[in-house]
Amino acid sequence: MTLGIGIDTGGTYTDAVIYDFDKREIVAKGKALTTKENLEIGIGNAIDRLPPHLVKATTILSLSTTLATNACVENKGGRAKLVLIGTSYKLLERIDAKTKYGLANEDVFCIDIPISLEGEIIDNPNWEYITKNQGKWFSDAQALAVAQVNALKNGAICEKMAKEKLTAKYKVPFVMASELANDLNVMERGATALLNARLLPIIEKFIIAVKNVLQERQLHMKRMIVRSDGSLMSDEVALIHPVKTILSGPAASIIGGRGLADGENSLIIDMGGTTTDISIVKNNEPAVTDGISIGGFKTQIKGVFIDTFGLGGDSRVTIENHKLVLNTRRVQPLCVAAIDYPQIKEELKKLIASNKTSTFPLYEFLYLAKKPQDLQYYSSNEINLIKKLKERPIMLGSGEIDLYNVNSERLEDEGIIMRCGLTPTDIMHIKGDFDKYDNSASILGAKYLLKMLPDYKEDNMDLNRLCDDIYDLVCRKLYENIVRVMLTNKHPKMFKKGISNQLLELIQQSWYDTSNKDFFGLHFDTQATLVGIGAPIHIFLPKVAHALGTECIIPKYAEVANAVGAIIADISASSKISISPNYTPDGITSYTVYATNGNKVFDTIEEAIEFAKSSAQNKAIFDAKKRGALGELDIDIKVIPKIAYSKKGTSIDLGTTVVASVTGRI
C-alpha cells in the first residue's frame, strides 16, 4: 500500500486527505481552521485529524494553497520594486501599464538605454550613478526584480548585471524575469517578476510552517507543491518561484473536482473563505491559458483557465447607500472572532443598546494579527494604531479609534491587522447551516445591521429576511460571474475588454426574471454540469444551477477536493525555443536558435530544428526532475512553424517554435 498526504491551505480552512495510490481512493480526511497568524497550528491540526498510523506510513506530502491567490486578490504581500531596462516612463504612461499590466510608476524604475531587436546592448546602465541617486527608492524594498527588453535574445545580460550590482548593495532577495518567463513582452515579464518578488515572504512562511509541523511530529516526507498549471514542483523550487503558485489552490480544485465528479463537460465552482474560482472542463480536459491575469497583474505564468473573484464564506457584508453589499475583501467572521475574543459580544450589545449609527461600520473590530518586522516603514498614525491593538481587539464604534484618520488599509493589506465583521459564514450560523463557532456573536452583528437599514424592522422576522437576502446576494453574485465566464469563453473576441456595465445590469436583472410569461424574456442557460466543491458551496449552487437550467453535482469529498487534487496531480515541465530566419537581400542565409544556454546559428532549418528539439527536451527533462519527477518520463515535442503570405501568394518564413513537454509522477 503506497500512501500520500494531500494538504490544501486555504484562506479559511486547511484540509488534509490520505490517498491510496494503489487503490486510487481516499482513505481518510481532516479539516482544521487556517491560522494565518501562525500557519503551523492549522496545518498541524489538519494532520492530527488523520489516523496516526496511516500518517506515519506515508512518504509523500503534496501541498496546494490559496495563500498566493488571496494575496493577489487582496493586494497583499511583501514590499517589492521592479527595474525595467530598455524602456521609459513615457512608454508606461502611453500604454497605461498600471491598468494593463499592474505596473504602477511608484513600483517601477525605468532605465532607458537602447537595446536592439537582436538584443545588442548599445550602452550599459551606470549602476554606480543609479544606486547613488535612487538609494532611498531601492532601500524601501523588501525584494527587488528586474526585466530587460529582448533579454531572451542575449542571455539576459543586463538582468544578470542588475542582480550582481543590486544584491551586493541592498542584500535583499532578487528576481530575474528571464528565470520565470520566456515570451518577449517585457511588460508582462516585468509584472511576472514583480509579483514573484511580492509573494516571496508569503510562500516562505508557508513552507517553513510545513517543515516545522513535520519536524515536530518526526515525519520524513518528500514535499511537493501544486503549480498554477495543475502539475507539481518541489518545495525548494516554490521558494524561489512563488509566482508559479498563484493559482495553486484553484488548479488543485480542478484536478480534484474532475477526479471526484468524473464529468466530461462541466463548470467546476470552488467556493472558499475568500474567493470563488470557476474553471471549465471540456471533453474531460481542463481549459488552459497562456498567461494568468490576477489582482491587476498580467503575467506570463501558464496555468489552467480559472476565473477568480472575491466571493466566499468570509466576504465582508457591509452597507452602501442604505443597501446591503458584499465586499470582495475577506474579514474574519464575528462568530470565529468570538471564540478567541468573547468580550466582543458585550461590546456589540452595548453598541446596539446605544442606538448609535454612522456611515462607518461601527460594529466591526480590528485586532493585531502579527507584529510588523520594522516600524520605520510605517506612518505615525499606523504605528499608533498598532500600539492600540497590542492588548485586545478594538471595535470601531468604541470611540477609541479616530475613524476619520484610522488609516488601516495598508496594515490590513500586509496582514498585520485583521478586520472582523459580518460575513456569509455568520449568516450560515444564524440559519443553522453551520454550527462550528459562536452564533450569538453573528446574531448581534446582524441585529445591529438592521438598525442601519431603513427597509428592515428590528424584529426576528426581518432578521430572518436579512439572512435570506444575504444568501440571495451570494447566489446572485455567483450566478452573475458564471454567466460572465460562459459569455467570455464562448465569445472571446466580442468580450476581449470584458463585460460592459449595461450587459452586467442585464445579467443581474435576469437573476430576478424567473417568469416566462413576459412578452420578452431574458434567460441564460448551459448544458455543462455545475460541479460544486468547497465547504459552503452546497448551500448556494443548487439555486444557481436551477436558474441556469442545468444540473448540480456536489461530489463525495467535495469539501476537501483541493487536497485530493494536490495528491493526485502529476509533474510536468515544458521548454519553448524560438528559431528565427536571418534575411539578407539574397533571401534567408541562416537560422538562429535562441536556446537557454546561448544562441547558435545554423545554415539549414533542419539543423536548427534538430538542435532546438534536443535543447528543449534536455531543458524540460532537467526541469521535471528538478521539480521531483521520478522514473520513466513521457516526452512530447512539437515543431510549430509560423508562415505568412504576401499579396502575390509567396510564403514568408516568420520563424519556428519548438516546444518540448515532459510528464512524470512523484
Word description of this protein:
- Among the domains are: 119 residues, Rossmann fold, CATH 3.40.50; 146 residues, no CATH class; 95 residues, Translation Initiation Factor IF3, CATH 3.30.110.
- The mean pLDDT is 90.
- The longest helix is centred in the N-terminal third of the chain and has 31 residues.
- Helix 18 packs across helix 19.
- Helices cover 38% and strands 26% of the residues.
- The strands form 8 sheets. Strands 3-2-1-4-9-10 form a 6-stranded mixed sheet, sandwiched between helices.
- The chain is built from 22 helices and 31 strands.
- A hairpin with a 3-residue loop joins strand 1 and strand 2.
- The chain is globular and about 90 Å long.
Topology (SSEs and partners):
Elements: E1 3-9, E2 13-20, E3 25-33, H1 39-48, H2 52-57, E4 60-65, H3 67-73, E5 80-85, H4 89-94, H5 97-101, E6 108-111, H6 127-133, H7 135-139, E7 143-148, H8 157-170, E8 174-176, H9 186-216, E9 222-226, E10 232-234, H10 235-240, H11 248-261, E11 266-271, E12 276-282, E13 285-286, E14 288-289, E15 293-294, E16 297-298, E17 303-304, E18 307-309, E19 315-320, E20 323-330, E21 332-333, H12 334-340, H13 343-354, E22 365-368, H14 380-388, E23 394-395, H15 409-413, E24 417-421, H16 424-431, H17 439-452, H18 460-490, H19 501-512, E25 529-533, H20 537-547, E26 552-553, H21 561-568, E27 571-584, E28 587-595, E29 598-602, H22 605-626, E30 630-645, E31 651-665
Parallel strand pairs: 1-4, 4-9, 5-6, 5-7, 7-8, 11-25, 21-24, 25-26
Antiparallel strand pairs: 1-2, 2-3, 9-10, 11-12, 12-13, 12-18, 14-17, 15-16, 19-20, 22-23, 22-24, 27-28, 27-31, 28-29, 30-31
Helix pairs in contact: 1-9, 3-9, 11-21, 13-17, 16-17, 16-18, 18-19, 18-20
